[in-house]
Amino acid sequence: MLRSSSSERGPLWRDPAVRALAVQAVLLLGLLALIAMMVSNTLANLESRGITTGLGFLQERAGFSIPQTLIDYSGDSTYGRTFVVGLLNTLLVSGLGIVAATLIGFAVGIARLSSNWLLARLAAAYVEIFRNIPLLVQILFWYFAVLQALPSPRQSLSLFEAFFLNVRGLIVPAPVAEPGFAATLWALALGVVLVASLALYARRLQARTGRALPVYRLGALILVGLPLATFLATGRPLAWDLPSLAGFNFEGGVTVIPELMALWLALSIYTASFIAEIVRSGIQSVPRGQIEAARAISLPGDITLRKVVIPQAMRVIVPQLTSQYLNLIKNSSLATAIGYPDLVAVFAGTTLNNTGQAIEIVAMTMAVYLLISLAVSALMNLYNARTLLKER
């Protein structure tokens, strides 16, 4: 006689699935209890020291200056304003670093595979030198050994009496928009739309007929020619505020502080050494037969690299490239070593010391870096997905 299914299963405590669920529930409750205890102890310690919690401190007056601001800021601004200033400075150096590191890294990575012996060895030397020196040491080198060794403002290195380089930074002319300059910006926007439309049309034309259009040359002509023609037609609605020496410093123009220059150079050169190896490995992952097939139909070397090798190598390059971009963004926090006013130095440094709101400030700083990293990862993953889809 067959037994019932309930008798075969036996007691619930003998069921492996039930036991596993019970263990996970106990661990979860223990974790929640630990977090609750830590929060309770932290709040009690803060209360005993007279430190209030919350984000109300963001509305208080900061009372300190910041050497580089991309928005209006003064000593009477709030701590919330310092957060925005530090965030923008972090985004600035991170964006500049990503662009420069990508360009240098791709150039060096391709040079490593060059048939020119000298070029390939120089590229290999670049990689082995800069990726094996700690980033902090490189930052200190560019700041103290190079930029701080420049002459004083009175003995500045000048170019065309408009660009000046000295110990206080790089001073360049500042553009001043005049009435009518908006038309040039609209012409530039129209040029971008036209180039995008041209690229889409050229792709469809090549897929239908095999005919290739010179998209790069036509696109460059549109992007440069259309805004330039509009600029000249509107009477050159852009003036330049030239810097001039007044006393012991320069007036006018835009000053790129040495802290930004040193951090940008170090981040770009250091990260580019890793990107170069990523590019080299990605190119070498493309089957040799693809290159030989391109040569068999008489494709020039530059077109073979641009149209055959690089598109296939990108599926190997992009995931690793994403990691390097994230590392560059997080490594920008080393700016505190030379006093660059990024988010960590301004907000998690000076603001934290003045207010004592450690929990809120550190949590906000961590959240910002997390959101920036997730945004970069999402964009790179989207590009990677589109690249893979095109290859199928």
What report would you give on this structure?
The protein is an alpha+beta fold. It folds into two domains: 17-48; 79-173 and 242-391, MetI-like (MetI-like fold), CATH 1.10.3720.10. Helices cover 66% and strands 7% of the residues. It has helices at 5-9, 16-48, 79-112, 117-130, 135-146, 181-209, 215-233, 258-284, 288-296, 301-331, 343-355, 358-391; strands spanning 157-159, 163-166, 169-172, 174-177, 238-241, 244-246, 249-251, 254-256. The strands form three sheets. Strands 1-2-3-8 form a four-stranded antiparallel sheet. It has a two-stranded antiparallel ribbon with strand order 4-5. Strand 2 and strand 3 (169-172) form a beta hairpin. Helix 11 packs antiparallel against helix 12 (358-391). The longest helix is centred in the first third of the chain and has 34 residues, at 79-112. The mean pLDDT is 85. InterPro entries: AA_ABC_transptr_permease_3TM (IPR010065), ArtM/GltK/GlnP/TcyL/YhdX-like (IPR043429), MetI-like (IPR000515), MetI-like_sf (IPR035906).
